[in-house]
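Batch manifest line 199
LIGAND: zinc ion
JOB: complex structure
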Amino acid sequence: MRSGSALHVVHEPDHGIDLAAAERAAGDFLRALGVSIESESLRGTPERMARAYAEMFTPRPFDLTTFPNDEGYDELVLARDIPVRSVCEHHLLPFTGVAHVGYLPGERILGLSKLARVVEHFACRPQVQERLTKQVAGWLSDQLGPKGVGVVIEAEHSCMTLRGVQAIGSTTVTSALLGTLREDARSRSEFFALTGVNK
Ligand SMILES: [Zn+2]
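JOB STATUS: finished
ARTIFACT:
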C-alpha cells in the first residue's frame, strides 16, 4: 500500500510478551528434560532463555523513508550479504546466514540501510526461510512500486546441522523474484550474477 506520504513507520506488533510466564515455562521445560537448574550457574537460565527468545521475536521499530526517483535511476539497486538471524518455527532453533536484496526502481527509491531493516523486521519471529524470503520481496514490492524485486537468502539451519542429519556446513538457498526480475531472463541472470548465487 503506497501512500502519498514519503514516510512510513513500521512498528513491531504488540506481542504481549509475558516474561515471567516464559521464565516459569522455561524452568518447567528444562526440568522435564532432566536438566537440573539448582546449581548457581543454571539458576538464572530460565530467565535468560525467556529474555533471549523475547529479544529474538521483537524487531526494532524503524522508519522507512522513501524518496521520489527524480533522477529516473532504472538500474538494479542491490544490497549484498545482509546478515540474517532468525529462528525456525519447527524446532525453535536459530538459522543464520545472509540475504541479498535488490530492486529495479520505479517511482520511489529507498535508503540502502533500510533494506537490512526490512530483512530484520521479518526475521524477528518464528519463521521458515521460504516465507521470510517471500515476505521481504512482497513488502518491498508493495511499498516501493518497483519494476522488479529480487531476494535471495542463504542460511544454515542449526536444526539441520546440530541434530537430525547433522549436515554441517550445508546451506539452504531460497529466492523470490517479482516483476521484471522474474519475467526477463537477462535481468534475472544479471541479478543472480551480482548476488554471486549460481542459478
Ligand atoms: Zn527447524
